[in-house]
């Protein structure tokens, strides 16, 4: 009995939904679109348009966008850029070790993979590491 009552109450609303204009339907579809979409290079996306490969950012650009938050203030033990003493032992391990730390993070520390820059390529992270090391020798 209760389910019949619900159907009887909802039926007029369903009929109204079928009477939407094309413009109303388009407005509703626009409002319920996903916030974002993942587009992989080489695949068609965004209405069939292939995503263009973006130009690599400079080490300074990546530093300013992602690394600076911690490495300018020493947050969570991050060595400040320009502090030679703080960087000396890290630089002594070699650039490959520093690149690995930048790309993969350092377990047990505040250094997360890519410094939180999910859209940075490995090469961009290496450039950012180079930028920080060059400013800290």
Structure described in brief:
Helix content is 53%, strand content 3%. It has 137 residues and is an all-alpha fold.
How would you portray this structure in words?
The protein has 137 residues and is mostly helical. The chain has helices spanning 2-18, 22-31, 59-71, 84-92, 95-104, 122-134, and strands spanning 44-45, 49-50. A two-stranded antiparallel ribbon has the order 1-2. α3 packs across α6 (122-134) and α5 (95-104) crosses α6 (122-134). Residues 48-52 have low confidence and may be disordered.
Features:
137 residues; Cytochrome Bc1 Complex, Chain D, domain 2; 2 domains; two-stranded antiparallel sheet; 2 strands; 53% helix; elongated
How is the topology of this model organized?
Elements: H1 2-18, H2 22-31, E1 44-45, E2 49-50, H3 59-71, H4 84-92, H5 95-104, H6 122-134
Antiparallel strand pairs: 1-2
Helix pairs in contact: 3-6, 5-6
Strand content: under 5%
Widest sheet: strand order?
1-2
Q: Per CATH, which architecture of the largest domain?
A: Orthogonal Bundle
Radius of gyration: 26 Å
